[in-house]
């Protein structure tokens, strides 16, 4: 039994929950429900997913949530909820969630928690993978003994994403974060953290997104391990960070002369006897690598091209996962093939993109996507699990995105995105593109950014997909001088106007960009999606200013001359400023 609604604009209080012993899903996000979340929610003891996000709930988060022993996902973002009672502001609900042994996601961002991060966070489920508490007005230090608090990380070794951004946290980043061995995503930006970035974080082998921008950090930025892949956007606007030039920070000062004298002295005293050992080791290493190259040069007989993964999936398994690529499992189609929803033998839901070998250029598109995605791991880019390749069959196996794509949400009568959600999607896409442009030595130009290629996960986080016509610029190539053939499409105008670049309104020399450029001076109401901006809206002026600012930015990004276009690093910063202005002026979006 499920209770699933979204954007139905229900109002008033949520009634007491009784007589629903088989209720497993309580999904009520995106309405206008207010008042307290009833303590009676614990009566639905079989609940697995609770999503009350994007409403007007206030008061404490009930600690009776801890009675939901089967709870896997709790999402209560963007309300006016506080931590515990109205007086003590303790995270009593969080301590109670220690009883939920299957809990994988806790998402409480955008509330009024306004307290110190509690020490008993370590009592949470050993299966917890995601903890999001951004924009919650959190105060105080991140506990320095967080390693001990998290049960020496035995309790949270499965944690994949930790978001404490846009709060009022201060003090140092704990050294003991290195115990979160599965961490892929860590966002601490827009706080008042000080001190150095701990070198211990270099041990986090899977960390692919790291953001400490807009803090008061100082000292040398670590460069080893995962830090070799981070770009300058991870460290912007801090007081005194230093490091390599590629991070756009000053070089670190060091005592090279003094150190060199010490090194010379130690070399004569201890180094000469070791030189022979070093030579032998170098020789052995060279011989080993030659042998390794011989062994890896043998032809691969399997029909699998692995992408940074040990998972092995055959054509037969993919056929079984999709019931023989049955039409009912088809999610969509494109120029080069079809996308199916599948369930692997271990129960994992995936999207399987099968390339049609009869279509000219399809297999070349497959090779391009493999090259582009081989080394990319990023929160806002669709994750490739693996791919299957034989003479006449090629397929990519991707993370499944349960909320479809942005085009469906913009142009379906049953879906609606409010202004904050659209701004969030813009930021997600901009962050992804900035990472493609600056995150690796090889610049990747997507060439096909449009709503149908922006996929939305269960938390409405946007992921850029479909790299079939992407361009990889080698060393020495200048991106701004590269002519790029791409599809007709401008993400920002379509997202906020709900007009497609291929609409009949646009013909010959009149493009969506020209139309927007001519119409924008008359006001955002002339171009905005009618469902998004109405003159009778309570916050009409604030929303109109937000849309106008984004449209101005869109015009800048799509200027005819490449050298006139804004750098994506600056675009990300501007979009985040626009979002902050919006949230500061609207209590409930």
From TrEMBL:
The chain crosses the membrane at residues 270-288. SMART domains: S_TKc (SM00220). It comes from the Eukaryota. The keyword Plastid does not apply. ATP binds at residue 353. Residues 325-589 form the Protein kinase domain. It is found in: Membrane. InterPro entries: Kinase-like_dom_sf, Leu-rich_rpt, LRR_dom_sf, Plant_receptor-like_S/T_kinase, Prot_kinase_dom, Protein_kinase_ATP_BS, Ser-Thr/Tyr_kinase_cat_dom, Ser/Thr_kinase_AS. Keywords: ATP-binding, Kinase, Leucine-rich repeat, Membrane, Nucleotide-binding, Repeat, Serine/threonine-protein kinase, Transferase, Transmembrane, Transmembrane helix. This is Protein kinase domain-containing protein. It comes from Gossypium arboreum (Tree cotton). The lineage of its organism: Eukaryota, Viridiplantae, Streptophyta, Embryophyta, Tracheophyta.
